[in-house]
Amino acid sequence: MKTIGVKELAAKQENEQIDLIDVRMPTEFREVHADCARSVPLDSLDPKAVMAARNGSASLPLYVICRSGNRSAQACKKFIDAGFDNVVNVEGGTTAWDSANLPVVRGKKSFPLMQQVQIAAGFLTVLGVVLAYLVHPYFVGLSAFVGCGLMFAGLTGLCPMASMIAKMPWNQCGDGGCGSSCSA
């Protein structure tokens, strides 16, 4: 997989048009993103649709960024698996972009997804224990279910609760704040 550093990409951007997609959640994108990135969340990424929407520039490199480089590497793999090999992972992601004092757009802050998952899992676990004590012992199953879900997430890297919470209205950008900032 091809990679590029943030300073090298910024230098390219000064001399040529680049296509930079950010594969983080819309709320993460809204909080801070590279000035010319556009939001294409990893959980709904369709490589063929992204390439088709490039209006004849599918042969030009597609640069992929996330927070630190992990999700963008997954996205690059999706593109490569779909037959598009001219994709480039941005090393260090938006964190490195911001740390290098490159232009970013800042917006509304929100709770990170994993913090929302921790709050929900903790609440459901405590709720299961309280209901088991006050209502019926079988409610302890709720706590066990949450514990099994956390173990599944830890073992597989997939978290159904995170996927569900990511689709909640407060984690969406209906105000137009998650679209493309500019076309380099």
Automatic annotation (TrEMBL):
> Where do transmembrane segments lie in this chain?
117-136, 142-162
Transmembrane helix keyword on record: yes
The entry's keywords: Membrane, Transmembrane, Transmembrane helix
Which ranges carry the Rhodanese domain?
Answer: 14-106
Show the Pfam families listed in the entry.
Rhodanese, YgaP-like_TM
Extract the PANTHER family matched here: RHODANESE-LIKE DOMAIN-CONTAINING PROTEIN 15, CHLOROPLASTIC
Supply the name of the protein: Inner membrane protein YgaP
Q: Which organism is it from?
A: Rubripirellula reticaptiva
* Gene (name only): ygaP_2
